Amino acid sequence: xxxxxxxxxxxxxxxxxxxxxxxxxxxxxxxxxxxxxxxxxxxxxxxxxxxxxxxxxxxxxxxxxxxxxxxxxxxxxxxxxxxxxxxxxxxxxxxxxxxxxxxxxxxxxxxxxxxxxxxxxxxxxxxxxxxxxxxxxxxxxxxxxxxxxxxxxxxxxxxxxxxxxxxxxxxxxxxxxxxxxxxxxxxxxxxxxxxxxxxxxxxxxxxxxxxxxxxxxxxxxxxxxxxxxxxxxxxxxxxxxxxxxxxxxxxxxxxxxxxxxxxxxxxxxxxxxxxxxxxxxxxxxxxxxxxxxxxxxxxxxxxxxxxxxxxxxxxxxxxxxxxxxxxxxxxxxxxxxxxxxxxxxxxxxxxxxxxxxxxxxxxxxxxxxxxxxxxxxxxxxxxxxxxxxxxxxxxxxxxxxxxxxxxxxxxxxxxxxxxxxxxxxxxxxxxxxxxxxxxxxxxxxxxxxxxxxxxxxxxxxxxxxxxxxxxxxxxxxxxxxxxxxxxxxxxxxxxxxxxxxxxxxxxxxxxxxxxxxxxxxxxxxxxxxxxxxxxxxxxxxxxxxxxxxxxxxxxxxxxxxxxxxxxxxxxxxxxxxxxxxxxxxxxxxxxxxxxxxxxxxxxxxxxxxxxxxxxxxxxxxxxxxxxxxxxxxxxxxxxxxxxxxxxxxxxxxxxxxxxxxxxxxxxxxxxxxxx
Length: 675
Description:
Distance between the termini: 80 Å
Structural class: mainly beta
Protein name: Right handed beta helix domain-containing protein
Keywords: Signal
Pfam families: Beta_helix
InterPro entries: Beta_helix (IPR039448), PbH1 (IPR006626), Pectin_lyas_fold (IPR012334), Pectin_lyase_fold/virulence (IPR011050)
Shape: globular
Organism: Mortierella isabellina
Oligomer: single chain
CATH topology of the domain at 63-310: Pectate Lyase C-like
CATH architecture of the domain at 63-310: 3 Solenoid
């Protein structure tokens, strides 16, 4: 009998294994075929309705043919399991992504209350609309409990034209945000009967371009708690059920109609290593770059936000209402019309926020705008702010009579050129101490202020390495220790715990200033004669093609520019370049006695050595030159290629062929690289 039972158990286990293996199936979609098949690789589905109707189980894949376009909405209602997610992705040869264009549908892809799912390697568009709700990817759940384990990666979401305040009448600033928002990637927890929240959502390595209104946006109807600002009482209605485990990492966002990345209704969200260029472009209403509201413990770090338009907000970053424990650290902001930071509490205090080790370059209207409402235990320390010519701004702009419990310490603010930096602040509880303010109007309550030049290595560039501190300047070792400080600065330098720290976001030793530099911003548009440069062919100054770097130098086919540098010492050179296409080769040369000693060619196939580059984007080229070993080490966007041996003494640098160039910076002794 025992043998019979054992045989039965073995048979049952064997059957379970067979069923498990059988359950893991790949289904195929090729919308370029003329007839709808059964979903096999030889007989694929050719329409999204059939693909959406296919029931999927743990471990299954739904794969779309590369270089084929499907029209309509893909809807996924099924879930995988732990360790066996459903995968929505691509198949076939080549690198072109499968395209899903929504047509007259609301979403290109809808994930409806699905857990344990991966969606990757697709292009999503939704171009028809702008007066109705439109989205690329919509992750939605209502009355569903915990929706968990969703990965969104390697998507290209573009040309999504959802409604915004600017596209429908009458004007309403809420159009396109809050519940049922429009945009590239929207995540929403809805319903009214069963608490609904998300856990462990990963959004990584996606590109989002030209979408309206939102870039990456979250919302929940499960929002109400004592800390929530009262004006949301008309926007969301159910008790607090926060989402957790939200990570937004390594995404690139361009030309966003409204907000860039928004976190609402989360605890301990992480937003890092994202790039946002161009936001608040078309909404005609308040929008910011990256921000959080009604959330606790949000961490934003190593992000870049630039090109925000209008002063209707228009700031790079925002610690908004109903938040506690928010940290913004190691971020870059530049050329945003609205300014650097918004801090917006409304009728409930914004609490325990930290803004540290960030860099702001040429942000305009205000450094820190404070909305109506109180701030409790806020810290703004060890940031570096450069405000260039023709900019007039308020460093702190107070729009409230409420108490502002904030410490502003160990920051560098440097003003250069025309314009002014003023204060709109009168609350003595807002502590301003041990800062370096150069070219900044005095503030009556400021203490221990350094007013001499702070010693920035290359002020004006948009790369953080231009804001190392030069040896001999008073900002080195002049700060005060801050409790619960970070262990390292923006660059990974350890923060001194037993000695006096530096002021600003750089904690390292003193370095050298640039001996050769050109930002090209001092020339008029159309200029073709550049001081310090020898040129051949057709060159001219143009507005930066990305729209967030001021002016740039354009070299048309066959033209070149050359200028002297000092190559007797070890040095590092860096420059930004932009190519409109990858089918025209060009090069960067180091020259000595009229001969090319080091040539860094970019091939006509879009290669930089073993690395590839993307057209119509800025890329950073760096050259570390060791004049003792006669080796030049090139890198592209911080990735190195093989070093180059040379012979001779370098005396000049040359850019040749059809590119845009910007932000040349040469520094002796390997201290820094700038572009």
